Amino acid sequence: MTDDDQHAKGSVSYLMEMGALKRAKRSGWWICGVKDPETIAEHSFRTAIIGSVLAMMEGADPAKVALLCTFHDTQETRVGDIPWIGRRYLEAKSNEVVTADQVANAHPAVASGIQAIVHEYENGDSLEVLVAHDADRLECMIQGLEYLEQGYRNAQEWVDSTRAKLKTPSAIELANAAQDMSSADWQRVYLR
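and the corresponding structure tokens:
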């Protein structure tokens, strides 16, 4: 087998591993009593959308923020979604170490590119990184509001704690707006 064949198989292996994110549930919501919480992929998708919107509002690069958001939880195929309470008792490898293992057999350009994205998300201090982190928090807050609507009143603590961590003016502005909306309000604009 040639190096190109091995790199192609390694890259596809990574892509197939990412499919596990479509099946893996966000476990922190179980603590709130949510019986069937969102998957990691569902969370990451909306985080990337929110990140793009926040980036446009903050004058950051929307494509860069979406990229950072897309890869921010990909390590959870290997370590799972460890809720904050669980992190007090566990020592997991850093996201950079897990990512390096995930892409070890991928095409070198793929491996270095993905590792750079994860490293930047975890360690960077650019506006794009700040916005990506706020997007992750805002998505969690909005998801919590949706769970509150569904009757999971224990989600209120998650809404409040993630909202308190928002840093950018745009994320705070959107969080304020979200507080007074229902998940069905988006369609009412078009029904008038």
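(Above: one complete record from the training split.) Residues 127-149 form the longest helix (23 residues).
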